[in-house]
Design goal:
It is built from six helices and eleven strands. A hairpin with an 8-residue loop joins strand 7 and strand 8. The protein has a five-stranded mixed beta sheet with strand order 7-8-9-10-11. Strands 1, 2, 3 and 4 form a four-stranded antiparallel beta sheet that branches. It is of the alpha+beta class. The protein has two domains: 78 residues, Luciferase, Domain 3 (Luciferase, domain 3, Roll); 127 residues, ANL, C-terminal domain (GMP Synthetase, Chain A, domain 3). The longest helix has 11 residues. It is 19% helix and 28% strand. The radius of gyration is 20 Å and the shape is globular.
Length: 229
């Protein structure tokens, strides 16, 4: 199923809007949502005790009236050599180093740090790398100071390598959606370029064993593949 990931930051909620409009098959190079047809030979038994959750994972009347497809949540694209490539995950997960990263789990771990008041975790693209690298916008408690060393030690002990946020963005307040959820779209779009972001940025530097300020020079070295990610 075709999905415009350039203009739409896909979540479980925005996926529902496709149910109300005609669906189409994506073309070569375009990103689409992978659906699996539900049939007698390939049934979907659903979730135990939750009809609502089961129905949420199904998309009906996709190609013909009466059909049903399971929403895998995977965004895929076909390349010039006819290979189907994984691009991203919808909702509150993203993929990095071949693993799915749950933003809610990372947020909970960051919330254990004494100087962090609030955290918003999301994934950002790094040119030349598949998937998205972890980034967290955080608010520091008024009576505390940000410590790159303390945060480094914490994520090193509490999170596997693929889910550790590579970038930290310090903010004074969090942008919220109309339903009072953390806004991620604008953060994802702005990326991690220090020359275009006014907020202080930090990078997970294994050689320094700390989160260090993300400078223009460091940013360039990351894009050049000279830094461990």
């Amino acid at each position: 199923m075709k999905a415009d990931v350039q203009k739409t930051f896909l979540t479980d909620q925005t996926i529902q809007t496709f149910r109300l409009s005609p669906l189409c098959v994506f073309s070569l190079g375009e990103t689409g949502l992978l659906l699996s047809k539900v049939s007698a030979s390939s049934p979907f038994f659903g979730y135990a005790g939750s009809k609502q959750l089961t129905e949420k994972k199904l998309m009906r009347n996709v190609f013909v009236k009466g059909d049903a497809y399971f929403n895998t949540g995977d965004l895929m694209a076909e390349d010039a050599e006819d290979f189907i490539c994984f691009k991203d995950r919808v909702g509150d997960t993203f993929r990095w180093k071949g693993e799915n990263v749950a933003t809610t789990e990372v947020t909970e771990v960051l919330g254990m740090v004494d100087f962090i008041q609030e955290a918003n975790v999301y994934g950002v693209e790094i040119p030349g790398n598949e998937g998205r690298a972890g980034m967290a916008a955080i608010i520091v408690r008024p009576e505390c100071e940000f410590s790159g060393k303390k945060l480094f030690d914490h994520v090193l002990n509490e999170l596997p390598g693929y889910s550790r946020p590579l970038f930290i963005r310090l903010q004074e307040s969090m942008e919220m959606t109309g339903t009072f959820k953390q806004q991620k779209f604008n953060l994802v779009e702005s990326g991690f370029n220090p020359s275009t972001i006014c907020d202080p940025l930090y990078f997970l530097d294994y050689s320094e064993k700390s989160y260090v300020p993300l400078t223009d020079t460091l940013y360039s070295s990351i894009l050049a593949g000279e830094r461990k990610l």
